[in-house]
């Protein structure tokens, strides 16, 4: 074996692989748990109830979801770098236990790459595929975490042995190859890469880190100090939103009201400080002023104990959102008419948009045309 071969083989030690694997498993686990929560909020099963307080909770959980996924990218690359020769060991199948191990590895690698790559492209809002991202990402999360569980179960004795020993027990003079990189050095480089992965996107959620969020597409400001995902022009609502005959229709309990923008502004106005947090991982705190949704529901006999459906002037997949009861009852939930002390910019939902505590931005409907008490 040449010196170079010895150096490469040394870096591909089970002791290095196990340590990177533990970090990668933790990142995947956190990403999986927070992703399930986000999916449950947006597509709640009958048993699921989401809370309205604390108002910053979704901002934190979704920020952690995206950051943990970004940290996992360099960890996965490092893991593949040290194990890829093992992926092609002979025999490819062998015993039933070996076949199960090989299958779990193949599924885990494929599902992991799919999840991280599509998640990264979703942050950038670039979808070069024909499938529906949320459904595919949600389903593949179970595949990835299931394959990870099988892989850990099969390799657990090896993992325990590798973690019990030091990273490198070789004599000091043999710990570095011609490249000058030791096992400890490779691990340190991996941890630094993971940290950079976090910093690259964490500024979308953590204001203090925005100056160093060098890959985050929405770490900067947009109209009125907030980023936007979808403009009024892209939504095709400019004409309807600026129409002088605009009316908000509120319905419920067999009753209905139509309110002009002027009439909405004559109703009691309330100002709240709430963050808006989107599934792509960005969030920003802001000051919103408008009419409480509970006050609008009361105009048509709503008792405050029911869910609320909010319908946009926009047409398409996210034109309708349904507020959970906790948010529909909360006095912080507004039909916002102003943002940071100014009338809403049209890209932020003029003439009125929903703002509610502890909900994803995709459920904070813009350009509201109708509110229904369910």
From TrEMBL:
Q: Which UniProt keywords apply?
A: Membrane, Transmembrane, Transmembrane helix
Q: Where is the signal peptide?
A: none
Q: Which residues form the Oxidoreductase molybdopterin-binding domain?
A: 242-373
Q: Which InterPro entries match?
A: Mopterin_OxRdtase_euk, OxRdtase_Mopterin-bd_dom, OxRdtase_Mopterin-bd_sf
Q: Where are the transmembrane segments?
A: 20-42, 62-84, 105-127, 139-163, 184-203
SUPFAM superfamilies given in the database record = Oxidoreductase molybdopterin-binding domain (SSF56524)
Which CDD domains does the protein's record reference?
SO_family_Moco (cd00321)
Q: Name one Pfam family in it.
A: Oxidored_molyb
- State what protein this is by name: Molybdopterin-dependent oxidoreductase
Instruction: Specify the species.
Output: Gordonia mangrovi
